[in-house]
Amino acid sequence: MEEMKPSAGQSALFYGLILSAGVILLHLILFLLDESIYKPGFLLLLLILAVGISFVSYDYRNKKLGGYITYGKAVKIGFLSVLFSSVIIAIYNWVFYTYIDDALVVKVQNYLITALEKADMDPEKKAEALAAIPQFYNAVSGAIVTVFLFAFWGIIISLITSIFIKKDKQLSLG
Questions:
Q1: 50 falls within a domain
Q2: How far is CA 73 from the centre of its chain?
Q3: How far apart are CA 10 and CA 92, in angstroms?
Q4: Domains: count for the chain
Q5: Percent residues over pLDDT 70 in the chain
Q6: Under a CB-based contact definition with an 8 Å cutoff, are residues 26 and 46 in contact?
Q7: How far is the CA of 172 from the CAs of 9, 66, 130, 169, in angstroms?
Q8: Which residues are paired to 167 by β-bridges?
Q9: What gap in Å lies between CA 125 and CA 12, rounded to an integer?
Q10: Does residue 158 contact residue 75 with C-beta atoms inside 8 Å?
Q11: How far is CA 39 from CA 36, 50, 128, in A?
C-alpha cells in the first residue's frame, strides 16, 4: 500500500504551529524585557519569520517532495504556514491583551500617539488621527491587524526566500 503524503495545507498547519510557538516565545521574552512594541522586537520578529519560512520550505522540499520544489510551491508552503501561524498568534494576542496585560494596549496606543505627533502632516488630519487611535486600537483590532501584518510580511519573505529554496528536477535527455 502506498504511503499518503500530507497535503500542503496539512503540512502548513503543522509548520504554522511551530512558527507561532517561536513567535509567541519571542513575544514573551520581549515582554519580560519590556521591549515588546519597539523596533528591535519587530526586527527580531522579521528575522524569526525569515528563518522560519526558510526552514519550512527547506524541510517541506526535502521531506515531502523528494528534494525538489518549484518556486511557486515554496512560496505557497511558506505563505500558508505564516497564514496559519498568524491566526494562532492573533488569538494569543487577543488573550494576552485582554486577560494578561491590558495595560499593554494603552502602551501601544501611547507609542502610536508619540509616533504620530512626530509625523510631518497636516495639523487637522493629525488631530483626527490622534483622536482615532484610542477608539480603533484595542485587543480585537490588534488581533485583526496581526493577521494582516503577518500575511503581508509572510508573502514578502516567502517570495524572497523561495528564490534560494527552489530546486527544480533536471530533465535527462538520454
A1: yes
A2: 19
A3: 21
A4: 1
A5: 92
A6: no
A7: 31, 17, 63, 9
A8: 69
A9: 42
A10: yes
A11: 9, 17, 25
**Largest alpha-carbon pair distance within the chain?**
72
Distance of CA 148 to the CA centre of its chain: 9
Cα 76 from Cα 155, distance rounded (Å)? 9
Q: What is the dihedral of CA 57, 27, 39, 129, to 10 degrees?
A: 110
Altogether, the residues listed in the chain come to a count of: 174
153-166 pLDDT tens trace: 999 999 999 999 98
Cα distance between residue 127 and residue 139, in whole Å: 23
Q: Which domain holds residue 155?
A: 8-101+139-165
In a domain, 68, yes or no: yes
Q: Is 67 left (phi over 0), alpha (psi -120 to 50) or beta?
A: left
What secondary structure does DSSP assign to 74-133, as a single string?
A: HHHHHHHHHHHHHHHHHHHHHHIIIII-THHHHHHHHHHHHHHHHS-S-HHHHHHHHHHH
Kindly state the cell numbers that stand for 108.
Answer: 501601544
Model pTM score: 0.81
> Exposed, middle or buried: residue 108 (CB in 10 Å: 0-12, 13-18, 19+)?
middle
154 neighbors 79 (Cβ within 8 angstroms): yes
